[in-house]
Amino acid sequence: MKLTVWVVEDEAPVRQLLVIALENHGYNVLAFADGLEVVNHAAQSRGKPPDLIVMDVMMPNMDGYEAIRALRSNKRIKDVPIIILSAASEPDDVLTGMEIGADDYQTKPFNIAVFLARVKKRIALHHKYNPYLDLEITTPKTTGLCVGVNRYRDKSISNLNTCENDARLLYNILFQSDTEGRSALLSTEKKSPSATSPTTNTIIGNLVKMSQSADPQDTLMFYFSGHGSYFEGQSYLFPADTYSYAIEHTAIPVHKIKEIMSKSVAQSKIMILDSCHSGASIGKTDSIMSPEFIRDVFSHAEGFAIIASCKQGEKSYEWLDSGYSAFSYFLIEGLQGKADNDHKGFVTVNDIARYVTHGVKEWARGRGLVQSPTVQIESVGDVVIHTYP
Q: In sequence order, which residues have a C-beta less than 8 Å from that of residue 161 and are 6 or more positions away?
């Protein structure tokens, strides 16, 4: 017997996409244009309840929240798993949906493979069987560059303590099985045989190589842990050979990184920046995340998911007891599975954004500090970053 999914979505093109995708994967699908339609159908129907309901939030006549409340009061429907599908992506939106009675929350725009994986897993949990016995999902490869800079040639730029650990462990998690040369680790300390010094030329050269080698279905990622600053109208990242008296000639403009990545055919691009570290100085200036730096990093970011370690006016703290920066500690922990709240077996952009934001804020609050990671996702969807063991 086929499994049945009800789709509740007011936008006809999205509704049609969901119906086609689900039917192509063997589901029976009933589609509804708003919350009132599905609630009335549930009240009148005497047949077998659906195996899962996909629910939009912002709809005419009755929104998704009200519809979920009504369905949860229906004895036949009350235990059916519900996945919210919504463009509202703030942590508070997700929490509201879960508190009202949803079992999962998928943000728009979305990756159809990830969506189908969520559907299958939720139905499996509902019926208590193993969803992966016949699950066939093609997880795109991640191609990318991890850069960690502790030591600077210019003595007026203060050295850092944890950036190389950050980059090395992230590289090992994401690319340990890479045998095709689709990734690179750049670090000022050669603790890894695969590491190369993170100079301006090696960073640019390797990023160009990775961007060109990525396939259309891939995710292209750039991670940088080190100094960053805003200077004369541009945001810069500081490689090891940056000089404070010649920033515009020796540092790398963030827009250059985005420009190189934008030319790649990879369907998704992710930039993760852990910079503006506390207690650090560049020349005679304290390192702090300026409003201009944030604005420049997040501008012209169509097609990107960008995660920065803190908000404007804040600093990015090193967690010396752990050996990592606080931001990268929670990033790495999340990628190892902690961010996968619904036990899918993989971690997505939205999973890691929620986990890192919450973890860093709580870590800082417990120490009387303030650090709030900043996230911007533009037309990337819920992309799989890492599949963990």
A: 150, 318, 320
The letter for the amino acid at 335 is L
pLDDT in tens, 166-217: 999 999 998 876 667 778 888 866 555 556 889 999 999 999 999 998 887 7
H or E segment at 66? helix 64-72
Placement of tokens 């934008």 in the chain: 262
Which residue type does 225 have?
S
Peptide bond into 131 cis (omega under 30): no
Where on the phi/psi map is residue 146: left (φ > 0), alpha (ψ -120 to 50), or beta? beta
Cα(34)–Cα(36) distance, rounded to whole angstroms?
Answer: 6
Q: Are residues 79 and 218 in the same domain?
A: no
Asked if residue 160 and residue 95 are part of one domain, the reply reads no
**Reported pTM:** 0.65
- CA–CA separation, 342 and 382 (whole Å): 14
* Count of structural domains within the chain: 2
d(CA 240, CA 149): 6
Residue 74 shares a structural domain with residue 213: no
Comparing CA positions, the residue from 308, 309, 311, 306 lying closest to residue 376 is 306
Strand-by-strand arrangement of the 304-308 sheet: 195-196, 183-187, 142-148, 219-225, 268-274, 304-308, 374-377
- Residue 365, in any domain of the structure: yes
List the CATH number of the domain containing 360. Answer: 3.40.50.1460
Closest CA to 221 of 290, 155, 174: 174
What is the domain range of residue 316? 142-387
Instruction: Please report which helix (H) or strand (E) contains residue 256, including its range.
Output: helix 254-262
CB 62, CB 35: distance < 8 Å: yes
